[in-house]
């Protein structure tokens, strides 16, 4: 019995070995596909321009990992930051761009223009996060590192606009004034200066006056050109005052007290609303003035990375 079983095992084993010997060798070998650096980079770029930013980041990272000595490594690092930025992942964008700015500006064959763009994109990423303080700090760091006059002037220009959009007109003027004579025309500073000199003509409302006028319900809103709110406040408060008076006059002090308490809240809100309206009016007026400056004078600048150095790219809005 045991001999029969062992014999069957030997026969089956022999058949298996014979079968394996006649299987083509290719069946056991994995098929390897070799991708060149050009193919990998081109694929990542294709995903980026198709706005498939998450996949593009992954492919750029693969490119950097497998081809660390390729001359396009820094470009791939920059594109990772841009993919995060375009995907509104601003914190990730800051981190990616900072990896590119860690190198030294004075290093031989260092892509100064590309790294300069990274600094400016860090600045823009912080602005998108409403962190103007960090954006300003980044530009000051760039000013300390950069020796190129165009880079310095663009930094001054961006600093000026950050302060301008923060409502700090004098600081904005200070940084605009630091731009070199050679680039003043490029930045249209003469037109910008003329517009800024008109800042005193902005129509503003005094919050204190709005509050004082609110002694008469609705008068503060009227001062701020909010006519519907003024009428509503006047009628509502007047109605409650009249109702409270009638209640007390009809010897119903409990009802009169309740109505008076309610009216006190609305009357106080009349003061608060008027002061808030004055601040909102001023913000809207300043924004309208600033938007007009942007539309007519702001220059969109970029530093294009070229093999031979830095190219100043200007875009005018008409």
CATH class category name of the largest domain: Mainly Alpha
Q: How widely separated are the two ends?
A: 101 Å
Total helical segments? 15
> What structural class is derived from the secondary structure elements?
mainly alpha
**Strand numbers in spatial order across the main sheet:** 1-2
Number of strands: 2
Order of helices and strands: HHHHHHHHHHHHHHHEE
Please give the share of residues in helix: over 70%
> In terms of per-residue confidence, which ranges show pLDDT below 50 for 5 or more consecutive residues?
2-23, 25-29, 305-312
CATH architecture of the largest domain: Alpha Horseshoe
Percent range for β-strand residues: 5-15%
The main sheet comes to: 2 strands, antiparallel
CATH superfamily of the largest domain: Tetratricopeptide repeat domain
CATH fold-level topology of the largest domain = Serine Threonine Protein Phosphatase 5, Tetratricopeptide repeat
Shape: elongated
Tell me the count of domains.
2
